[in-house]
Give the backbone structure.
Amino acid sequence: MFQVKSLEEIKKFWPKEAPNLDGVLKYVSKYRGEKIVIKCGGNVLIEPRLFNNFIEDIIVLNKLGLATIIVHGGGPRIKNKLSELKIDSKFIGGLRVTNKNIINIVEDVLINFNKEIVNALKKKSCVALSITTKERNIISVKPERIELGFVGIPEKIETFILDKMISERKIPVLAPMGLDKDNQSYNINADIAAGAVAKALNSRRLLLMTNVEGVYDNNKKLISEITTIEANKMIEKKTITSGMIPKINTCIDAVNNGVKGVVIIDGRKPHSILYEIFSD
């Protein structure tokens, strides 16, 4: 694994808008040998400025020798493609109902998007590898529930493939899909997929990067920290609704199953990944 020798070396690739360099070596030491799973979704993956910001942060982590695993979403792109084809889709509990026709479209969109992320990293001299239902699939699934159609829950993650990539300083880039016992493709909510990977790897951190600040209370004020009991009550009272439900359920499940820290971060803010990892 690459070893950073000094702050002078880091200054050569450290972004101007990133956090102060003073404590960086302390955090590098903290995360050395650990795994960081980052789920990226929302407008972060559509707006070029935010996308480039995300790519730059991942490159910095890689240069620092930190083991990073990316799980990407694709909801806005899927929505745009379905609209283009005049196909309606509905949601139940924040999860897209996916029939036979829609699953094929979802798969194509996510695989193409996966390649874009991998290529963006490769252009910056980072070795990234695709993990999709068509290439190096590592997720075995079972159906979530009948009314959702081809929406799956991860049953098993082949972690040895990820461990091998990480040992070679390669960045795994996972599309949130998996295969059942009959090799049928299933869509997986990206937050749930990221949580499953983080649990399987016993990762130090799980970052859920999105285009909102986080969880709001009834007065629309951001909650900086929340317990699992409080979060469940907020779902019951419908303070937490829609697409935030899978995120919060993923957070609860992850911290209850070995992941040391889970956080929802706002990908619209410059270098939010670096601020989360390299500052207090």
